[in-house]
């Protein structure tokens, strides 16, 4: 009888422990985000991704945040050069808060951060495509979590890390899940008044490209107009200087059309004849 009671007690304890081990979150964790720019194709947008564990008895061991299709990751951050800062991470718990930088590693697409020099946060990026959703997988070192029980964490990207979609529309950062240290993962929901969607607005990048290509020839043409106008203005001045032919044309008739030189010659030729004729006539009369 004693052995039977002992066996029953052991089984009850085992069942209780198993139920606790697979309990997971008792409160749904939250995830939402904000951006500094929602313009189509923006390369300078700064995103803040916020995850919160409102459970007071369960830690989160990992997060999987969806990156919608259409976004892209800046190529300067997909590198095997370590130490390039891709984002910063801030955590706040009832016991305190702190901040650390998330930097590249020797593995492209893999990032890490040391929390106060003792805890490591690993972030693996699965880059999205034009039609394929990407993912940001955050794993916390054992015994430590950025989103411990009753804590929240914020990831703020560097400019150019996330490049906005080129086509306007509504982009859903879901499903994004949180995984407890025990039990199944659970889909995170936005906080009241916040959202998991980003509304991309403005003309698409393709339209902007066509517009800039259309406007591009106009700018140089306009810029060239001043010199062309100046040359056109100066050329008539040069042509005006060539008015010399008109001056010479006007002057040429003066020597040719003026009869004064020819008449003078005729008079000079006639006067001696008259004088000679008068002298001959005078001599004959004397005789």
Identify the notable features of this structure and list them briefly.
eleven-stranded antiparallel β-sheet; 5 helices; Immunoglobulin-like; alpha+beta; 287 residues
Total strands: the figure is 15
What is the beta-strand fraction?
25-35%
Major β-sheet strand ordering: 1-2-10-5-6-7-8-9-3-13-14
The helix/strand series, from N terminus to C terminus, equals HEEEEEEEEEEEEEEEHHHH
Helix content: 25-40%
| CATH architecture grouping of the largest domain | Sandwich
CATH topology grouping of the largest domain: Immunoglobulin-like
What does this protein look like?
This protein has 5 helices and 15 strands. It is of the alpha+beta class and 287 residues long. The chain folds into 2 domains: 178 residues, Sandwich (Immunoglobulin-like), CATH 2.60.40.740; 38 residues. The strands form 3 sheets. The protein has an 11-stranded antiparallel β-sheet, with no helix packed on it. Strands 4-11 form a two-stranded antiparallel sheet. The longest helix is centred in the C-terminal third of the chain and has 37 residues. The protein is elongated and about 165 Å long.
């Amino acid at each position: 009888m004693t052995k039977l009671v002992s066996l029953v007690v052991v089984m009850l304890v085992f069942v209780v422990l198993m139920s606790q081990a697979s309990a997971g979150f008792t409160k749904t964790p939250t995830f939402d985000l904000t951006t500094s720019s929602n313009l189509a194709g923006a390369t300078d947008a700064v995103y803040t991704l916020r995850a919160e564990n409102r459970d007071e008895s369960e830690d989160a061991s990992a997060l999987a945040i969806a990156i919608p299709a259409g976004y892209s990751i800046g190529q300067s951050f997909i590198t095997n050069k370590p130490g390039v800062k891709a984002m910063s991470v801030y955590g706040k718990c009832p016991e305190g808060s702190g901040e650390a930088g998330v930097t590249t590693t020797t593995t492209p697409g893999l990032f890490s951060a040391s929390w106060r020099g003792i805890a490591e946060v690993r972030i693996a990026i699965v880059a999205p495509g034009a039609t394929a959703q990407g993912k940001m997988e955050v794993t916390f070192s054992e015994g430590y979590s950025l989103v411990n029980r009753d804590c929240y964490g914020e990831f703020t990207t560097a400019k150019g890390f996330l490049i906005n979609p080129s086509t306007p529309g509504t982009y859903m950062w879901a499903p994004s899940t949180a995984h407890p240290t025990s039990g199944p993962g659970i889909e995170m929901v936005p906080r009241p008044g916040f959202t998991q969607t980003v509304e991309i607005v403005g003309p698409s990048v393709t339209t902007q490209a066509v517009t800039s290509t259309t406007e591009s020839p106009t700018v140089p043409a306009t810029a060239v107009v001043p010199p062309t106008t100046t040359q056109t203005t100066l050329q008539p001045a040069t042509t005006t200087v060539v008015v010399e032919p008109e001056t010479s044309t006007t002057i040429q008739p003066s020597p040719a059309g003026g009869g004064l030189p020819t008449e003078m010659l005729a008079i000079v030729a006639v006067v001696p004849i008259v004088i000679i004729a008068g002298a001959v006539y005078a001599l004959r009369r004397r005789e």
